[in-house]
Amino acid sequence: MARQNATSPAPKWLNPSEMKAWRRYIVASRRLLEALDADLQGHDLSMSDYEILAQLSDAPERRLRMSELAEIAMLSRSRLSHRMKVMEKAGWVKRESCPADKRGYFAVMTPKGWKAIVAAAPDHVESVRHRFIDYLTKADQVALAKIFEKVGTALREGVNENKK
Fold first, then answer.
1. At 94, phi and psi to the nearest 5?
2. Contact yes or no for 76/102 (Cβ under 8 A)
3. Alpha-carbon distance 58 to 97, whole Å?
4. CA of 143: how far to CAs of 125, 138, 147, 149, 160, in Å?
5. Distance from CA of residue 156 to its chain's centroid?
6. CA distance 76 to 87
């Protein structure tokens, strides 16, 4: 974030309605992620582990370039590398060198990783339903999807303009 100086315009402070929406979002999203993470502990998985395994389970041959996986799972490359070390030790994934790019690697789900995601998925889906979906009407679901599509697109594209 840029620091204010004498020539910077004054910030456009949040009004009470905007502040309420923002703070409620922050608190609820943090609590939701903590709860979902706690619900996976019985499977010895973190939310990051689950997300990595879920992405790999959907990929062709259950493998993705490490750079692509980092982007999809919204992890820095160093954070993904750390998680991969932990997950390799657990036997859920392995790294394979990329023949086309000597510096690149694939993340590959192992049969043990497949078993882990298959075992955890029903409990995770139930947790998502119980802790999130069950509180939303169909209209809420549509509105949230639309809202976060707009926000996600703007963030991916680096849009910094105020749009309504």
1. -145, 160
2. no
3. 20
4. 21, 9, 6, 10, 22
5. 14
6. 16
Tokens of 44: 């010895």
Helix axes 47-58, 16-40, angle to 10 degrees: 80
Instruction: Identify residue 127 by its one-letter amino acid code.
Output: S
Query: Minimal CA–CA distance to 70: which of 57, 56, 60?
Result: 56
Beta strands in the chain (DSSP E): 63-65, 93-98, 101-109
CB 117 within 8 A of CB 50: yes
- Residue 124: Cβ within 10 Å count: 19
Which residue in this structure is represented by tokens 């497949």? 114
Which residue carries 């160093």 as its tokens?
78
Q: How far apart are CA 128 and CA 40, in angstroms?
A: 11
pLDDT tens track for 4-13: 566 778 899 9
30-40 burial, b at 16+ Cβ within 10 Å, e below that, comes to: eeeeeebbebb
For the stretch 125-134, pLDDT in tens is: 999 999 999 9
What's the whole-model pTM score? 0.81
Judge whether 92 and 53 are in contact, CB under 8 Å. Answer: yes
